[in-house]
Write a structure and sequence with these properties.
- It is built from 10 helices and 10 strands.
- By secondary structure, it is an alpha+beta fold.
- It folds into 2 domains: 69 residues, Arc Repressor Mutant, subunit A (Orthogonal Bundle); 174 residues, START domain (Alpha-D-Glucose-1,6-Bisphosphate, Chain A, domain 4), CATH 3.30.530.20.
- A hairpin with a 3-residue loop joins strand 7 and strand 8.
- The chain is globular, with a radius of gyration of 18 Å.
- The chain starts with a helix and ends in an 11-residue tail after the last helix.
């Protein structure tokens, strides 16, 4: 996604207010968002949402007959990684911690059903699929972790730490259709208190057009009051930003974790 589209979308105060509303409670419908902006017509809210969708700051998903809107922080994360992090790393870390704290407070009020993220990668679906499923790629952007699976429905999927072999995430393949769709469960193993929550679900969807792959990652099916929800919320934007950087440039976004 071009940064100019992101800056343009963020320039309007109404669009920033819509993002704030989705930050407070993700997955709202057009009707719900329009009700929170009584000074604006439904059509006006729809036009602003289309601009945000065009900048990939908002992602829509169908839930039955409803279309729900989700905040996608990945484009902002990419801008942060490109221009801000080397100057404001500590302040940005503080803001990230504030975001996590706010999300934890919100979880006690409203169980948000999903986290939805989208990133555009200048590469083929096959190359992006390899980056998701092959350890020689994942260890370079996914916090030093490596997946192991036969990649067939019903097979186990384990993410382990490169070098030490420590198990980080356990799961099961629900659906695997290379190179377009992968669905698996996600059971945290790096924290016993979160392991007890049981499985959530991760869905990867890849669409290619003119040499650019749109990668959408959806993490959902969290139990009420989930601590895993808060734990992964800060990680997915960094993971997807790192994946994009690695695939497009061949260089990892962050220093690689040395094997133990």
């Amino acid at each position: 996604m071009e940064p100019e589209l992101v800056f343009k979308a963020l320039a309007d105060p109404t669009r920033r207010e819509l993002l704030d509303l989705l930050f407070k409670r993700d997955g709202q419908t057009l009707t719900e968002l329009a009700d929170r902006l009584p000074e604006m017509t439904r059509f006006g809210v729809m036009k602003h949402l289309r601009v945000l969708e065009g900048a990939a700051l908002v992602i829509t998903r169908r839930a039955g007959r409803e279309k729900r809107h989700y905040l996608n922080p990945v484009p902002i994360r990419l801008i942060h990684d490109r221009w801000i992090s080397k100057y404001r790393r500590h302040r940005a870390a503080a803001l990230t911690q504030l975001k996590r704290s706010l999300e934890e407070d919100m979880m006690s009020i409203d169980n948000r059903p999903a986290q939805v993220y989208t990133v555009f990668i200048r590469a083929s679906r096959d190359k992006v699929w390899d980056a998701i499923t092959k350890p020689e790629f994942t260890r370079r952007y996914f916090f030093g972790s490596e997946p192991a699976s036969n990649w067939a429905p019903g097979d186990r999927l384990r993410w382990t730490e490169n070098g030490s072999g420590r198990e980080l995430v356990d799961g099961e393949i629900i659906e695997c259709s290379p190179p377009s769709r992968l669905v698996h469960t996600w059971i945290v193993q790096y924290d016993e208190s979160m392991t007890a929550e049981g499985p959530s679900r991760v869905t990867w969807e890849l669409e290619e057009n003119d040499g650019v792959t749109r990668l959408t990652a959806v993490h959902d099916q969290f139990p009420a009051g989930s601590r895993v929800y808060d734990s992964v919320a800060g990680g997915w934007p960094l993971v997807l930003s790192g994946l994009k950087t690695l695939v497009e440039t061949g260089t990892p976004l962050m220093p690689e974790k040395a094997a133990v």
